[in-house]
Amino acid sequence: MFERTKNLRLSIIKQIELEASKYPDAISLAQGIPGFDTPGCIKRRVELALKRGVVSKYSLVSGLPELRELIEISLAKENMFFDWQKEIIVTVGSIEGISATILALTKPGDEIIIPEPTYTSYQEVINLASCKPILVPLNEKNNWSFELKRFEEAITDKTKIIFYCNPNNPTGTIYTKKQLIQLAEIAEKNNIYIMTDDVYKDFIFDKEPIFSIAEVPEYRDRVIRLFSFSKVYAMTGWRIGYLHACEKLVSEILKVHDSLVTCAPVISQYAAMGALEMGEGDVVKFSLAYKKRRDQTCVFLDSLSDYLDYVRPEGTYYVFPKLKIDNTDSWKFAFDLLQKEQVAVVPGMAFGPSGEGHFRINFSRDEDDLKKAFERIKNYFKKLNTSKQ
Amino acid sequence: MKPILKFFLKHYLRFFARLSIAINKPIVIAVSGSINMLFAKEAIKKILTQNNYKIHTNVKNFNTAIGMPLTILNLPSAYSSYHNWIPIMLHAPKKIFLHRETEILILNYGTSNPGDIKDLLKIAKPNIAVICNLTKRHLEGFSDMGQLAGEYQCLINSLNNDGLVVLNNDNRRLHDLALKTKKTKITFSIKRKSDYQVTDIVKTKQGMSFSVIKNSKNISNIQTKRHGEHHIYAALIATIVNDHVKQKINKTKRKTTPD
């Protein structure tokens, strides 16, 4: 019974949120929800579509043509050239695109390499496809960067895909162009696909826009790039995203996408059109606000340097501090903090073995909430220090 | 936006947009069709800019009764913000002489309801009308494909005697329109014999390359980083428009140059 699901676990992030809901005054810095509501221009686009009566029927399996045209145009602005008719699929958030891709490109027993710590749900999807996640630790001492040698060592004849998130959730690391090109060379040499989940690509604080392997024509046959509107346009509830890859791969992924969802919700596809047509200004506004909140968070973490160490995030809206206290069990810490000070954070073990001893803070909440939460965290460590004395 | 305000805004902006065209007399290129409008517009813009024509076109996909005047007057949209429309409206009269230097105005003509094209023609009558493709997209506003095709027929009918219609010969409906029309027309195709055709399409990881044939002669070899058949159509359209504009502007210059 339940052979396929017996090894799956409910996301630890959801478990923490569930626990936090029992505390009426809890401030949650756990789940990766953006700190803003969906922009008004997107809502107006949806209202218009509703009035026109165009949202009640299925769209084409790969999505509305007008949306895919806009996606092609938006990709071209980022130096990625893909055919909207044959190389782009509109998906139900990025997670459905990830699931469809893994199911299409692998067979049971295949191995998928993921650098860790990384987003918790990747491992579950890989397990669901009866594949094996091979975790390659990132180098915390070098700002959580790739260690290419470790990737090479992890490759076996069963390796099918290398799958990473850039900028990385939960560390906020941006992988460099040089590192990514070297990784692509390894993939090319070993005939492995690359999946890149770029959902936080617009929240970059100190660097130039991120580089994607999908920009390099030589690698376009082995790269599947995924994007979600959830974070960038504050649309987590709309469940809409897209993937793009070469025609040969997309035609296979499309079959799985069709079997799983028929098409992405049409009302959300219109919302995505609104986002691409008119949402640019809001993305800039969000990004500036998150940068300010990142700086505020770093000032706070600096003030707790006796208890915490951290790598300054270059992107996303997360920071991943390391505990410098006696008991560094991240699960116990997260639940203790919630119980004693009513602040929800995600235990680092949720993101892979290298995440143990850390916890993730989502700093996208508004400044006042962050201030309150930081006061409580500070109290927690002060009390911890007092009880030790 | 409330209908009464929308009505006022539409007519107010239309007045200044028409005035601007009447004063500056640019060549107006209408780019229309159910799909590929945006890519065709970009390809036309690129080729004409490369050939040093002074052009103006829409930055965004502004192709409605309010969007088109905004494009012509080079003004942004305030969407549903009443407050933000005020400075835009105040700026409109100042933009009339914006196109003193503009030789060519490239505009998208969109339709999602019967009469939309007719409404846009009240703002700007084109000298060249391009119809990229005709599919079931936006059909929900029409009773059938015939009524939708009627919108494009209306665009063709609006052309003066020296006007030109550029039609996709691979689309059955547009092929029929091409056969029927008495206006000067140029057809293009990937699949069937037409005025402008393509051959030797080669697709690689780096993009595509192909040759454009006119009257059985290879007139250009095109390479693009883009992928997809729609970019081949867009390149064909741009080549046709460029050839025609070259002739038209030469003719105009000859007429106006003193002996």
In summary, what is this structure?
Chain A is an alpha/beta fold and 389 residues long. Chain A has 13 helices and 14 strands. By secondary structure, chain B is of the alpha/beta class.
Keywords for this structure?
heterodimer, A: 389 residues, alpha/beta, seven-stranded mixed β-sheet, three-stranded antiparallel β-sheet, B: 259 residues, nine-stranded mixed β-sheet, 42% helix
Describe this protein's structure.
- The complex is a heterodimer of chains A (389) and B (259).
- With 389 residues, chain A is of the alpha/beta class.
- In chain A, 43% of the residues lie in helices and 14% in strands.
- In chain A, helix 3 (65-77) packs parallel to helix 10, helix 4 packs parallel to helix 5 (121-128) and helix 4 (93-105) packs across helix 9 (247-261).
- The longest helix of chain A has 24 residues, at 280-303.
- In chain A, 51% of the residues are buried.
- In chain B, helix 2 (37-50) packs across helix 8.
- Chain B is α/β, with parallel strands linked by helices.
- Chain B has helices at 3-24, 37-50, 67-72, 82-91, 116-121, 145-157, 172-180, 229-256; strands at 27-32, 55-57, 104-109, 128-131, 164-168, 185-189, 196-204, 207-214, 217-224.
- Chain B has a nine-stranded mixed sheet, sandwiched between helices.
- In chain B, strand 7 and strand 8 (207-214) form a beta hairpin.
- The mean pLDDT of chain B is 90.
- Chain A binds chain B through residues 40-41, 44, 52-54, 65-66, 69, 72-73, 76, 81-87, 217-218, 220-221, 277-278, and chain B through 35, 38-39, 60-61, 79-80, 112, 135, 137, 140-141, 205-207, 225-230.
SSE topology sketch:
The complex is a heterodimer of chains A (389) and B (259).
Chain A: H1 12-20, E1 27-28, H2 40-52, H3 65-77, E2 88-91, H4 93-105, E3 111-116, H5 121-128, E4 132-137, H6 148-154, E5 159-165, H7 177-189, E6 193-197, E7 223-228, H8 229-232, E8 241-244, H9 247-261, H10 266-278, H11 280-303, E9 308-309, E10 318-319, E11 322-323, H12 330-341, E12 343-344, E13 346-347, E14 359-362, H13 367-388
Parallel strand pairs in A: 1-12, 3-4, 3-5, 5-6, 6-7
Antiparallel strand pairs in A: 2-8, 7-8, 9-11, 10-14, 13-14
Helix pairs in contact in A: 2-10, 3-10, 4-5, 4-9
Chain B: H1 3-24, E1 27-32, H2 37-50, E2 55-57, H3 67-72, H4 82-91, E3 104-109, H5 116-121, E4 128-131, H6 145-157, E5 164-168, H7 172-180, E6 185-189, E7 196-204, E8 207-214, E9 217-224, H8 229-256
Parallel strand pairs in B: 1-3, 1-4, 2-3, 4-5, 5-6, 6-7
Antiparallel strand pairs in B: 7-8, 8-9
Helix pairs in contact in B: 2-8
